Amino acid sequence: MDISLVTMVFFSALGVLAALYALHFRRRALAMGPERLLAALSRTVTGDEEEQAGEEALRQGISDLEARLRRAFRIIAASFVAILAACLVLIATSILPELGLALSGVCVFLASLLVAVVLLRDIPRTISRQLDGSGPGD
Predict the structure, then answer these.
(1) Of 12, 1, 36, which is closest to residue 105 (Cα–Cα)?
(2) Per-residue pLDDT for 138 more than 80?
(3) What is the pLDDT of residue 78?
(4) Phi, psi at 108, each rounded to 5°
(5) How far apart are the first and last CA of the chain?
(6) Contact at 8 Å (CB) between 113 and 15?
């Protein structure tokens, strides 16, 4: 019982810390402003400090980032549902209650990761809005 309780507390704390870090990262990124986010994306796309990426390359970078976040959300959500179902079955049937307790900590961890991914989805949207606002007419 002690090991399962420690496992649950460990994964729960790790999940909460991951969600708090994602919240902090999102706040810092949005506080930087869309211009600096666009410059950071440009550096990431080109791999060079001085060279500026074209609008098409930036749009491709934004779509790649959004696709990665969607993929991460789907994978984490599928894992969460599978482990939650296993946890509920173990608890409902009273087979290996220690394992059910440990898996509940993993469920909290995965739920926190889902929250983190949802929080991070605003960053590419902000960059995209900046890119749309700084078109050829500006």
Answers:
(1) 12
(2) no
(3) 97
(4) -65, -40
(5) 64
(6) yes
The tokens 């986010």 sit on which residue?
A: 37
Whole-prediction pTM: 0.81
User: What CA–CA distance (Å, rounded) separates 83 from 132?
Assistant: 41
**CB-based burial of residue 100 (10 Å sphere; 0-12 exposed, 13-18 middle, 19+ buried)?**
buried
Q: Please, is 108 exposed, middle or buried when counting C-beta atoms within 10 Å of its C-beta (0-12, 13-18, 19+)?
A: buried
Q: What tokens were used for 102? A: 């440990």
Confidence (pLDDT) at 134: 62
Residue corresponding to tokens 């869309």: 34
Q: What is the pLDDT of residues 72-100, one digit of tens each?
A: 999 999 999 999 999 888 888 888 878 88
Task: Convert 52-84 to b/e letters by CB count within 10 Å (16 or more is b).
Answer: ebeeeebbebbeebbeebeeebeebeebbeebb
CA dist., res. 60 & res. 67, Å (int): 10
User: Amino acid identity of 64?
Assistant: D
